[in-house]
Amino acid sequence: MTDYILGIDGGGTSCRAAVARPDGTVLGRGKSGAANILTDPNNAIISITEAAKAAYRDAGLDEAGINGASAFLGLAGTNVGDLTRYVHDRLPFQHTDIDSDGLIALQGAIGDEDGAVAILGTGSIYMGRKNGTVRYIGGWGFTVGDLGGGARLGHALLQEALLAHDGVHARSAVTDAVLEEFKHDPRGIVEFARLSKPGDFGRFAPLLFDHARQGDPQAIAIAKAGAATVNESLDAIMALAGAPRLCLLGGLAPLYPDWLSERHRSILIEAQADALTGAVALAANRRKDRTGAAA
Amino acid sequence: MTDYILGIDGGGTSCRAAVARPDGTVLGRGKSGAANILTDPNNAIISITEAAKAAYRDAGLDEAGINGASAFLGLAGTNVGDLTRYVHDRLPFQHTDIDSDGLIALQGAIGDEDGAVAILGTGSIYMGRKNGTVRYIGGWGFTVGDLGGGARLGHALLQEALLAHDGVHARSAVTDAVLEEFKHDPRGIVEFARLSKPGDFGRFAPLLFDHARQGDPQAIAIAKAGAATVNESLDAIMALAGAPRLCLLGGLAPLYPDWLSERHRSILIEAQADALTGAVALAANRRKDRTGAAA
After folding, report:
1. CB < 8 Å to B186, chain A
2. Which residues, at least 6 apart from A157, have a Cβ–Cβ distance to it below 8 Å?
3. Partner residue opposite A144 with nearest CB, options B143, B147, B162
């Protein structure tokens, strides 16, 4: 049986897999459902296996071949050690390496080089690599962390709308837009906030950046405060990165650069590839480590 | 049957009542269980009735007399109109007036005069009275409001501890104390935050003020940020108050003054009386309004 490698990108909404030759040349891709190892590890195992089989079929290979594969998985929620071990031990691949979804994103974005990546989506997490070692900052979630993420920005905007309603802060177009959405009843904002998940707050982030770009003073204040926390975290992560190379990923990546410090803006690079490509590369690297550089 | 009045202070942990002569002279007091009309309106009706009966017994009066009383109730959660009406219609008193717990606190603190009150406890709410009309600011709860309350201060401290752990902000004695409490495992803070109610965050507020008073730079920064939001809200409420008279109430009232602007510190007064006394005074006022000033 030919020894293929598998790169797998598993997240809360879907799971993607790519099968490749040992040198990393992708032969086929597959997709399946959610692979959230925190909320449903057994279902994650099923999704991961299905995505792998679909990739084999896409490549014209027998799906039973996944049992011989060397797989590298980047999964959300891997900071809970027990569940990672549980999933690891129940997957069908010959070799299985599991790491964070952040690591495969970093690998995709900057390849094997040193540098740093910031994932600015609903949350915010920072990774820096120096001589092959990756360090993390942030990513603690909405409640007491992720200060630069869209959820916290949206949350700050709702809060600002309430302050404007109370006459504590000045009103502006952006707070008017929010109050309008809640029919000028502050209790609607309070109730929305009570029921909302981070992603619900996050959907206000694009509105915020829109108004900030148009010069709205309250929107600018919130965008600047968010950018200040990102700048601080970037300072900390660049101190852990082996090279002045920074890549922004996530939904807010196109929106943030104008608000960041010049010292960070000046070292921004485009991502080389996506997280799935990063997973394939890491699978190839790990296989090489196991079999010797000649393989 | 003699026409007595009742003042009632109903909150989430207990309900207190005082029976008084129509002129406000208190004859007896009673206490019962929780009277939270938001979470359990039927139980609130029972607690209110029990506290009233206990006050009558304490005064040596027949508890059946509560049916003839003119009662003024200050209750938490009265911004939900339907429940207030529900409770109002099921209470046994001859006359029943229900308003917020804030209003009776204001009445107790500054009597019939114009001025303002800030309740700085787990949350933060501001009230100003001008020519008898009371206006409110804040009090929107932990999630998107109550910026000056103990819950938000404690929350900010936990967040600061995570930033210190990540090396994004400098460490200090107060962040070390928090990290020590969680055995230097940031996941402990994240898990605590996930499970916590506002009061759980609020218990870190005294620790914060302790360290701030001792000169801890991180604690000072959080205390100053909290005081800045209180100063802003006080500016807004003093603009709605008919006289430069300000009273701080709530668990943080003794801790905040040193951090506030001189323009607010200089008009601080001590509370004349507590919220229950305020409820009795409002019951007397309402009865007078109904029966004519001669009664």
Report:
1. 140
2. A174, A175, A178, A204, A205, A207, A208, A219, A222
3. B162
